[in-house]
Amino acid sequence: MAFALLFLIVPTLQIVIGAFRDQDGAFTFANVLHLFQPSILSAYWISIRISVASALLGCVAGFFIAAAVSIGNLPRWMRGPVMTFSGVASNFAGVPLAFAFLATFGRLGLVTVLLRDWFGVNIYAMGFNILSFSGLTLTYLFFQIPLMVLIVTPAIDGLKREWREAAVILGASTPQYWRMVALPILWPTLLGTFALLFANAFGAVATAFALTGSSLSIVPILLFAQIRGDVLQDPHLGYALALGMIVLTGIANGIYIVTRSRAERWIK
User: Fold this and answer.
1) Would you say 156 and 71 are in contact if contact means Cβ atoms under 8 Å apart?
2) Is the pTM of this model over 0.85?
């Protein structure tokens, strides 16, 4: 309770109050109204697109990995290393992750050079750029996919063998079982995890700032510029930007909590 009060509730209240204060401390709606400027709306739109793309790709890839280690034909010993790696990778972000992807997919990165020298494929000539929408989405997938694996694996483990056997007895094929039995049961978990991954990507700032700097205008970078910048400094506009992020991530986390509770009730 004390930890949540000091590091979550009080800072959040300070942000909310600061969003409705001017430089002199007087009450105002101007900061919130400034969120509707074209440049700020564009930053929100880019952040939403990146979050949706990384969350969707992370859900798809993570689901197949989780299914493979849970009910697939992979050797059982692979489950432990996959889950251990997922636990580590889901928390690997910030400057180290940005540097790792620059060293891998940068213009002189390892993969970029290997593709160019060994296979004659120049990904940058084809339009790829690590300092872009696609590059940042790819980087986010490094922690989005493992997080999906960690969350969805217990849900897949909860699928009872009797359900599969009953479907087979009634003449259902494997695609029919997944479409009519398994996926409807897993749907609340999948939807909730998508919302959680969206919130996870939407609030990421260290990785995006370290990777792209100011070349990609997303909300966390714009917020950083307003709070700490030398030219664009306007802390109260930064509070308003943070308030918008709190609202969006709060909605996403609310969806996750509701769907998670429903999924747990269905599994029981």
Assistant:
1) yes
2) yes
Among candidate residues 119, 120, 100, 98, the one with its CA nearest the CA of residue 110: 100
| pLDDT, greater one: 204 or 28 | 28
Provide CATH code, domain 2-267. Answer: 1.10.3720.10
Residue 123 has pLDDT above 80, yes or no: yes
For 46, the token pair is 């880019």
Instruction: Output phi, psi for 91, to 5 deg.
Output: -110, 10
Model confidence pLDDT, tens digit, residues 75-89? 888 999 999 999 999
Distance CA 40, CA 20 (A): 17
| In the chain, alpha helices (H) | 2-4, 10-18, 30-33, 38-70, 79-89, 95-105, 110-118, 133-157, 161-169, 174-177, 183-202, 206-212, 219-228, 235-267
Beta bridge partners of 27: 21
Q: Which of 125, 60, 98 is nearest to 221 (CA)?
A: 98
* pLDDT, tens digit (0-9, with 9 covering 90-100), for 205-257: 778 888 877 777 888 888 877 777 655 567 888 889 889 998 998 898 888 88
For residue 21, the cross-strand partners are: 27
Measuring CA to CA, which residue among 259, 258, 257, 227 is closest to residue 242? 227
Q: Nearest to residue 224, comparing CAs of 241, 212, 211?
A: 241
